[in-house]
TrEMBL record:
It comes from Sneathiella litorea. It catalyses: a 4-O-methyl-thymidine in DNA + L-cysteinyl-[protein] = a thymidine in DNA + S-methyl-L-cysteinyl-[protein]; a 6-O-methyl-2'-deoxyguanosine in DNA + L-cysteinyl-[protein] = S-methyl-L-cysteinyl-[protein] + a 2'-deoxyguanosine in DNA. The lineage of its organism: Bacteria, Pseudomonadati, Pseudomonadota, Alphaproteobacteria, Sneathiellales. Keywords: Activator, DNA damage, DNA repair, Methyltransferase, Transcription, Transcription regulation, Transferase. This is methylated-DNA--[protein]-cysteine S-methyltransferase. SUPFAM superfamilies: Ada DNA repair protein, N-terminal domain (N-Ada 10), Homeodomain-like, Methylated DNA-protein cysteine methyltransferase domain, Methylated DNA-protein cysteine methyltransferase, C-terminal domain.
Amino acid sequence: MTNDARLNAVMSRDKQADGKFVYGVKTTGIYCRPSCPARNPKPENIRFFELPDIAEVEGFRACRRCRPDLVKIADPSLSLTRQICQLIQQHIKEQTGEKLALGWLASETGYSEDHLSRSFKKILGISPMEYYDNYRTIAFKANVKAGESISEASYGAGFGSASRLYEKAHARFGMTPASYAKGGEGAEIAYAFAECFLGLMLVAGTRHGVCAIYFGNDEEALVTELNLEFPRAEIAADIGLLANWTKAIVEFLQESSAALPEIPLDMYGTAFQRRVWQALLQIGPGKTRTYRELAEDLGAPKSVRAVGRACATNPVSLIVPCHRVIGTDGKLHGYRWGLERKEALRKWEGAL
């Protein structure tokens, strides 16, 4: 079902489309079934999801009027995926303290581990265990915001103990759980500016690596955007290591080097976003992939829009080359810093 068909179903409140997808409204944070009697949202504020569980992982809550979370799923493969999601959520909510095993999911669903993993990944683009890890992280954050201690929040989120939460903490949060619990206090971000053929460039980083590369025309506007993206961090102009990283990026742009500078990155994202960003790093200079091809490369052909969102939310433009991805029609589609810059980068790399 194409997104145009989904939009038509939403606007006409088509009951035949219930169970085939749900849609979230960005301005309200609520997701609904296609036939929801509520006032139709603006098309630009709509996001489509294969399953209610995916919408909830993305931070949307079910509409109390149309109860999309109770609709029977029409597609058998989607039904299995939803069953797995619900089993994972149930396991976390029961707070057994034991880590979930793929074998347990297989025995509960009656499918082999291999079939279960392949089916799940085909729909969501991530494995059941990656979904489990993501859901635990989301649950931990919700528990902390509710006022629980680190120990209480970690146990309630299915980590068993705080020590398990701290394992790979940097990959989950870009900071320690304790720092996250304090609203990001202690996370220090420095920034520096440089001029390049793309215009004004802002490079920002933590002690671990570069966390943002922005392009624009106004220093104040770029710093404002940095503060909006990292509202709880301590942000200040750089006086140290960041200057070296910025210099390496500028030299890369000036010298037309085919090799990206070896700069450490400090990026936070979901498991799927990280997979997309890793795939972007595999696209060579002067080469392109379409969003659809990238989704197929990831083994998630139905996740074209999710791939597009991951590219759009890539905080480290240029180093993680989302500008090398184009539409299926061969045209440039969307770039956070403007299509003119995307085209300039592609032309520059094409001369390498």
